[in-house]
Design brief:
Blueprint lengths: L7 E7 L10 H20 L3 E8 L4 H10 L3 H18 L16 E7 L3 H16 L3 E12 L5 E3 L5 E4 L8 E2 L16 E5 L6 E12 L5 H11 L5 H13 L4 E2 L1 E3 L16 E3 L1 H5 L2 H14 L11 H5 L6 E9 L3 H20 L17 E5 L2 E3 L2 E2 L10 H7 L2 H10 L7 E3 L1 H28 L20 H19 L3 H22 L11 H23 L5 H10 L37 H20 L2 H5 L7 H6 L2 E11 L7 E8 L2 E7 L7 H4 L3 E5 L5 E3 L2 E3 L2 E2 L1 E3 L5 E3 L11 E2 L1
The structure holds one RNA strand of 78 nucleotides.
RNA sequence: AUCGGGUUGGAGUAGUCAGGUUAUCUCGUCGGGCUCAUAACCCGGAGACCGGUGGUUCAAAUCCACCAUCCGAUACCA
């Protein structure tokens, strides 16, 4: 008898993508895909699953983007929330299933946003609660602000302030640190401070009151929590968390002087210009999202608990099996192992009146069961970057390629324990050789062979050859692979799990090789034929199993198989653990089977990507903002101010304090030399540069570059893709000749 | 320079926290087989002193120390 297991309530949390740009493949590999695989897997196990995430829409970078484009922050986040939620659904993630297809009691998914009015309300409630329970404290800090002519005060983050270093006198010191001498100091020690964004504005230090979350009082509970998790967390999560705890926790500001964000829940005038700091508010999205899901969907679709349905998943109940898994990139680890758990403990202590603790009481909010953080996916060796245009954007990708191929490649190459690379040639290789050659081909072999047997239109011609007892050993092998894949998925080891599943299709290929059913398709009935075709019948069953097992990874092709083998029942009703239930009758679909995937052509792909990249670059050069500011034309007189001359490189030295700089001694006129620091290390070798004739800017104001005065600048062409070429005169000409 | 992460057959990786038989898998490569299938599939072989040195231990890819080297973030830039 199968054991009747209690249904688990599982919550999948995905880190909230920041809504100031489209998602790129780094996001997909790091959080979106693993979260979705886990969601689909937990569903297939029959569990009640809730999945929560959404767009993170507050904070400074969004206001900066808005300013650049001359539109409101709300317009920015509206745009990218729409683009990103659409792209996620198109790549096969289950965010569109607000209500589980099995019924609302089973849960659902919500991709919400932090500008949601209800999110703001709940955050305010929490803020108030923590304030009243004394988890927040008020401190006065000193901060730079710029004051415009009409008296408007704008507070500036440290990194937007520069000035003169109190230690070495360098002109380019930042708000809290000097890069020339490396010293750090309080921002009020900086001399002659100025705003980086608006250097002429008046700037001064003002006192500003802020509220701080007393993170320090959670130190002990968090240490206990971390040690309880030490065998579950991956090494990167463990060590990053340990680092934080070893440094000692300090209180963190939960408010900011900014206008874009959630208002504080106080009427008091002095809080009017402040907003909730985005880190403190965005993590609460997990909590608000679950509640909003219950209010909007559970309630509407008549969940037995109505708007309280979220408690099934989020509130600890010793009689239930409950599990919380969070997915994110490595930069987010401390937020999920330290900060968010601390906030949860604070909320629990506030509500129950108990002391702060990591051990839960009935009715408390649950803490995480695993923080499954991934490392980064790199693009051909470099990090995905929005500002440097170094990325493959998810919406663009989906316009051209089958989402399942992406999901396959990113799953089998997932940055689980260290950074991995996205490479187009590897993408093509893996899809063509593994996904298509091994798996797609196996499915195709089975289906086309079966269709070459004579059949009446409704019955599977393999039924009469079906004989499981002949294949006991093979079935055991496959059973064991299924079991291994399950265990891997339970530990969020997706690469390994998918590898086991692919091995099942490899076993299928071996089975066909051994049975050689093609020999008997049209032959007389015989024992040999019976044996051979029983192998094909088992192959058919394996195809069906694979449709179920690959579903969390590649949902679209799995449905295609389901239709081709003539299964009528929804594939979502089949339980993961029944994927290998071989006792059921064979189904049949009389229409001709199609190949699951199309082969990819690397050459075509490279051409297409080059085209997209050049279009993208052209677009950017012609952005309206650049033209509006009148920066497209300069006056001839302005151009003549720049004095460019020819010179000859005499010698090249290492810079003592910089990675990319060469210190170059230049023959600038026949009689004199000058020193120029050039960022050409790693592009040009020392030997190559020495003796080279170059063009330089002669009348640039000398400037200290990481400690060494640079008197001018070498001219070089840069295509934006890392190709840099120095300008050099076409023939011999004396040094110091004017370039014009 | 500061901080973080790597270094395992030709390439990419598993194993490292909790040390223990022949070091995992994929691709490639070489030889053979099959011919149903999307030039795919199946079998077999070759190929690794686990970055180096020293230490702890009966035993080290795994723990410790030092060194080398690569990558990323930040700063410096064209």
């Amino acid at each position: 008898m199968p054991q009747v297991r209690k249904m688990e309530c599982v919550t999948i949390f995905m880190a909230w993508p920041y809504a100031n740009g489209p998602l790129h493949l780094g996001h997909v590999a790091g959080n979106c895909l693993p979260a979705d695989i886990q969601y689909k897997f937990e569903r297939a196990k029959g569990n009640k699953v809730l999945m929560c995430s959404g767009s993170d829409e507050h904070g400074t970078p969004i206001t900066v983007s808005a300013e650049e484009e001359g539109i409101s922050p709300q317009e920015i986040v509206d745009r990218y929330h729409k683009i990103n939620s659409k792209a996620l659904i198109e790549m096969g993630c289950s965010w569109g299933d607000n209500v589980d297809p099995r019924g609302v009691e089973y849960g659902g998914a919500l991709y919400n946003r932090t500008t949601d009015i209800r999110h703001k309300e709940i955050v305010k409630e929490v803020f108030k609660l923590l304030m009243e329970s004394d988890f927040l404290e008020e401190k006065t800090m000193q901060q730079y602000c710029s004051i415009s002519e009409d008296g408007i005060i704008k507070f500036l983050p440290d990194r937007y302030v520069e000035g003169e270093c109190p230690n070495c006198g360098s002109e380019e010191a930042r708000g809290d640190q000097c890069d020339d001498c490396g010293v750090t100091y309080d921002s009020n020690e900086l001399l002659n401070p100025r705003s980086k964004m608006n250097p002429t504005a008046k700037i001064e230090i003002r006192d500003t009151d802020h509220l701080f979350f007393k993170l320090n009082i959670f130190q002990e509970s968090l240490e206990k929590h971390a040690s309880e998790r030490s065998h579950i967390w991956k090494p990167n999560v463990r060590s990053m968390t340990k680092n934080w705890l070893n440094m000692g926790l300090r209180s963190r500001a939960v408010t900011r002087d900014i206008s874009w964000g959630i208002k504080l829940p106080f009427d008091d005038d002095r809080w009017k210009t402040k907003r909730v700091y985005v880190w403190f508010e965005a993590v609460q999205g997990y909590f608000t999202c679950a509640r909003i899901w219950a209010e909007r969907f559970a309630h509407k679709y008549e969940h037995s608990e109505g708007a309280d349905a979220w408690k099934d998943w989020l509130i600890y109940n010793p009689d239930k099996k409950q599990k919380h898994i969070y997915f994110m990139g490595k930069d987010n680890i401390p937020f999920h192992t330290i900060i968010w758990p601390a906030i949860i403990m604070a909320m629990n202590a506030s509500k129950s009146g108990n002391l702060v603790s990591n051990s839960l009481q009935n009715g408390d909010l649950l803490l995480e069961n695993n923080v499954a953080s991934n490392e980064y996916l790199m693009l051909q060796g470099g990090q995905f970057s929005k500002s440097r245009k170094h990325a493959v954007w998810l919406p663009n990708f989906l316009e051209e390629y089958d989402p399942d191929t992406l999901r396959y490649y990113l799953s089998i190459n997932m940055p689980e324990t260290h950074d991995t690379d996205f490479r187009w040639d590897e993408f093509v290789d893996r899809v063509n050789n593994e996904l298509i050659g091994n798996y797609g081909n196996f499915v195709n072999r089975v289906l086309t062979l079966a269709h070459r047997l004579e059949s009446d239109s409704n019955e599977n011609p393999l039924s009469k050859y079906d004989s499981l007892e002949k294949h006991h050993e093979k079935i055991m092998e496959i059973n064991s692979l299924h079991e291994k894949a399950t265990k891997s998925l339970e530990k969020q080891r997706f690469k390994e799990a998918l590898r086991y599943i692919m091995t099942i299709s490899q076993k299928g290929n071996i089975l066909l090789q051994e049975s050689a059913p093609w020999k008997y398709l049209n032959s007389e009935e015989s024992d040999e034929k019976n044996n051979s075709l029983s192998g094909l019948a088992l192959g058919w069953r394996i195809v069906k199993s694979l449709a179920i097992l690959t579903r969390p990874f590649m949902p679209f092709q799995s449905e295609r198989i389901w239709a081709m083998i003539g299964e009528k029942s929804p594939i979502d009703d089949v339980l993961w653990q029944d994927a290998l239930s071989f006792e059921r009758n064979l189904t049949w679909n009389n229409s001709k089977p199609n190949a699951l995937f199309k082969k990819l052509d690397l050459k075509e792909i490279i051409e297409r990507e080059d085209m997209i990249a050049s279009e993208y670059n052209n677009d950017n050069e012609a952005t309206p903002s650049a033209r509006d500011k009148g920066s497209e034309y300069i006056q001839f007189e302005d151009f003549m101010k720049v004095e460019m001359k020819t010179g000859k490189i005499l010698s090249v030295e290492e810079h003592p304090n910089a990675d990319k700089l060469w210190v170059i001694k230049l023959q600038d006129t026949p009689e004199s030399t000058r020193t120029i620091c050039a960022g050409l290390k790693g592009i040009y070798d020392k030997e190559k540069l020495e003796g080279m004739n170059v063009v330089y800017v002669a009348n640039l104001e000398p400037r200290k570059l990481r400690g060494i005065i640079s008197e001018g600048m070498l001219l070089a062409a840069d295509d934006g893709n890392g190709n840099v070429k120095l300008l050099t005169p076409e023939g011999d000409i004396s040094t110091g000749s004017l370039v014009r």
